[in-house]
Structures are given as C-alpha cells and as structure tokens.
Amino acid sequence: MITQLSQLDLNKRYTYADYLSWQIKEGIELIYGKITAMSPAPVRLHQKISMVLSAKLYQHLEGLACDVYTAPFDVRLLIDDSESVVQPDICVVCDTTKLTERGCDGAPDIVVEILSPSNSKKEMGVKFNLYQDAGVREYWIIDPTYKTVLMYVLQNGKFVGLKPFVSGETIRSTVLPEFCLALDKLFDD
Fold first, then answer.
1. What residues does the Putative restriction endonuclease domain cover (predicted)?
2. Which residue of 12, 22, 153, 173 is 20 to 30 Å from 64, comparing CA positions?
C-alpha cells in the first residue's frame, strides 16, 4: 500500500486508477500522468477570496443547471493517453453528466485558480496548458498580491486573454454572462 509520496517514482507516468489506490496524506495532483505535490495549506487571504467568489457563484447558480465546487474536489482530465487529476480552487460544471461521486470527469466550464507564492509557476504555466488542452471554456487566475484577475477564454482550442481586471473594476464571465462581480468585494480584506 502506498502511503507516502517517497514510495513513488516521480519520473513514472501514473493513471487515475493508481491515484485512487494511494493512501497518501499529502496533497498531490496528477498532471499528464506525472505526480506533482500540491502547495501547503493556503494563506488566509487565499481562503477568503475563494469563499467570497464561490459564495457569489453559488448564489448566482441557484436554480440554474450549473454547479460550483471548491477544492478539494477531483477533476479528472484525459488528454491523448495522459490522465490528469487536479483540484482547482473553484470550478463550475454545467454538464452534470460529468459529475461522479468522486468529482468531475472532464473539463469544467470555468476553472479558477488563486495564486500564492508557492504555486504561481504551476498555475500560470503547467495548469494553463492543461486546462487549455482539456477544453476548459474559461480560466481565471486570481492574484491576491496585486489584486488582479486574468481571464482566459477558449477560442478555437486556444486560450485568449482578456484585459487584466483590477480592483475597482467589475468582471463578467463569458460562460455565465449574467454573472458579474465587483472586484473590490473580492479583494476587500
């Protein structure tokens, strides 16, 4: 039985079945079949932003055919022959046939990742490519330090970045056009 990350070969490719069989206490994700350790517990501001945004999304989605989920929530993505299992900070799923007891099988419609000093390279590079390849329709990267939101919209299989949104502005989703959020409320601490 695998109980520690040190028992695994980090150069090997693994499957979702492998991932489910492990009893590892540390947070891990599987990206293109490769194991990556998750960042330690997020700081308070990260958690507050996550809670404010997920609450606003939950209120907006009430009575609609979409659901919002927050980490830890497994999102399983199959791209070519590589399996990935990630736990986005927030995701919105409008195709309920993708939902399972364990999480989401397939690309959510919206994925939100909140940066922290230890995860910005992964969120800005590796996960950007993963979410684009998987067909996530809208990807938000929130930077609490600079009070900005970068929104990428999938067009013809590639993410296109909109202008950066900053504190004092209102952001509007392209996937959920009726959903808008004043960023002052998101970054108010």
1. 18-183
2. 153
Which has the closest alpha carbon to 110: 45, 46, 181? Answer: 181
Helical residues (DSSP H) of the chain, grouped into ranges: 16-21, 44-61, 120-121, 127-134, 183-187
Q: Mind listing the pLDDT tens digit for each residue in 10-49?
A: 999 999 999 999 999 888 999 999 998 887 777 888 999 9
DSSP code, position 38:
P
77 in any annotated domain = yes
CA distance 133 to 118: 24
How many distinct structural domains can be found in the chain? Answer: 1
Q: Judge whether 138 lies within some domain.
A: yes
The answer to the question of residue 14 being in a domain is no
Exposed/middle/buried for residue 80 (C-beta within 10 Å: 0-12, 13-18, 19+): exposed
SS3 for 160? strand
Residue 90's pLDDT is what? 98
